[in-house]
Amino acid sequence: MEAVKYLVRGADQREYGPVELPMVRQWLQEGRLNAASLVRRADNPEWRAVGTIPELADVVIPPPVMVAPAAVAAAPPTAAAGPRVSGLAVGSLVAGLLTPCTLGLSGLLGVALGVAALVKLRREPGRWWGRGLAVAGLAVSLALGLVMLIFLLAVGLPNLYRARETAQRNACLNHLRQIDAAKEQWVRENKQRGAEAPTWEDLVGPGKFFQEKPVCPAGGTYTIGDMMTEPTCSIPTHTLRYPITRRPPR
User: Fold this and answer.
1) Contact 184, 192 (CB under 8 A)
2) Do residues 17 and 42 touch, judged by C-beta distance below 8 A?
3) What is the DSSP letter of 199?
4) How many CA atoms lie within 13 A of 138 on its CB side?
5) Which residues lie closer than 8 Å to 60 by C-beta, 6 or more apart?
6) Is 197:224 a contact under the CB 8 Å cutoff?
7) Which helix (H) or strand (E) holds 222?
8) CA–CA gap between residue 75 and residue 55 (Å, rounded)
9) Cβ burial, residue 17 (10 Å; 0-12/13-18/19+)
10) What three-state secondary structure class fits 106?
11) Other residues' Cβ atoms within 10 Å of the Cβ of residue 134
12) pLDDT single digits (tens) 189-236
């Protein structure tokens, strides 16, 4: 009886044989084939795995266990990290609370940070949280900033007005002293008596004591007066503090 022969399909998809069963067994022992290798009888077109042939069961090495892709896909996904608090929102609230300490300067920063935080939270809603902090920072910054603005205006405006008033008064007194000195010089040059009083035409003009008529910075009106009285301004607080006593020149 003729021995059964087999054709073997190698890993390179080429067919080898026909060979008898002992040769197939030898290839299995040498590692050239494994349980998943395909063989068929020379008289049968159906290909079978080597591991399904009972005559070779004693030398067949079972294939390695492979993890099915479905099992990998079924593994639970790693939990995603939750949203983080927005540093801009926290900074807005902190800057707003520091507004009184910085005389309102940090309030401007708090408003800017609060607006930036709200814009960022709107663009990336799932990544950041802190809308309440941003709104609170905006509210605190605006409220305390407004309070500080009112406080600064209440303190600064009167001081500014007083400084302006003092500067105008000092300039006016300087003008009165200059008018008084010009009046004395006019009396000496023209050998007038104390009852005489110069006019502005006598004191103002080319080659005279003033090139232009002095003007009170606060809008007052000057009165020259005679030699027995000092020049005055129509504003009550703009007066020379020292008494002037003059006698007619000899």
Assistant:
1) no
2) yes
3) -
4) 12
5) 28, 34, 35, 50, 51
6) yes
7) strand 222-223
8) 40
9) middle
10) helix
11) 27
12) 887 765 678 889 888 988 888 988 899 998 899 998 877 788 899 998
